[in-house]
Amino acid sequence: MAVSAAAPPAAEPLPRSIFKKFLVMLCSLLMSLYVFYCLADRCQTLPGPIIAAGAASEEEEGGGGGLLGGSAELPPWQAAAARRKRLLQRLKQRRRRQEAAPGAEVPGGGGGSRAGGSGGGGGTAGTLTLLLGEGSKRLPQAIIIGVKKGGTRALLEFLRVHPDVRAVGAEPHFFDRNYERGLAWYRDLMPRTLEGQITMEKTPSYFVTKEAPARISSMSKGTKLIVVVRDPVTRAISDYTQTLSKKPDIPTFESLTFKNRTTGLIDTSWSAIQIGIYAKHLENWLLYFPIGQILFVSGERLISDPAGELGKVQDFLGLKRIITDKHFYFNKTKGFPCLKKAEGSSKPHCLGKTKGRTHPDIDQEVVQRLRDFYRPFNMKFYQMTGQDFGWD
What we know:
Elements lengths: L15 H24 L8 H13 L15 H25 L23 H8 L4 E2 L4 E5 L5 H8 L5 E3 L15 H7 L2 E2 L4 E5 L9 H8 L4 E6 L2 H15 L6 H5 E3 L4 E2 L4 H4 L3 H8 L8 E5 H6 L1 H11 L11 E4 L4 E4 L24 H22 L7
Parallel strand pairs: 2-5, 2-6, 3-5, 6-9
Antiparallel strand pairs: 1-4, 7-8, 10-11
């Protein structure tokens, strides 16, 4: 009887766990290659949902979901790839517009770098890095500390055109109202910046807050301070006008100005009057900061020669002079300069309707009495700053 040969042993199946790990690694590799392929702008065709999301974002620009908006229906990795592709396309469009108009500055685009060649995010790579949430939040290196109704909002809006300036839009009021929240809370309010960029904020009430100088010095003795000052009489009337727009039933400017109008004694406890005694407030700041660390910007010249004043500010901050005359035009209706291109926009931009309000008619005898009151304080302020602002 013939003996049949023994059958060869069957091969053991690949363990299921190893097979799963292999599939996961393969999928991860393929997805990484796909994302890299899209970032390299090699994707000519994308799945329908991604194309739809890209088209939607173009329609939403300036109003809806924003640059980084993505479809909630997409898987996370597809949404991330779509966002990156849209950002690259948008930045290329900005670059082409800039190249088509030599010398024009595209907000957020390749507007130049800080003096010394630090780069600071002015180019495409830096802008993309910020839009993708990279960079870091830092405590401000420069603060606009005053004064109310002096032109601080205009200065901040003008400065934000510079690619190496990143600033908080709203006033944080950290060193006067929110100090107990701590520096970590304050830092978290700041925008993300790249190496070489300057973080800024503005809160005009700091200048008249007694505790503010010590608190800012405690944060950083090297903080650069900017004060926008204006004729104290005009500033007081502007201050009153703002309050009147919110509380139409308040007393007249004339009655609030005097403790006793018969004697002509000025009421210095009224904040509208008290803020304009600049020399008194500056003395408090000089206890903690040298005069060379404070820049005084003329509110009047900020209107008549915005590029000239912005040149001084850029020099003070160590920035390349990028903001020049070509960025401004004068709006005759409002009576002050506007930006031809605001930050992140290709459209002209003027300050809001709350700026440039028409002042009420004030008794000229009261105006003259105020000028006489402020004159000695103005003269002292001129001596302290080494500048004659021409208010007298």
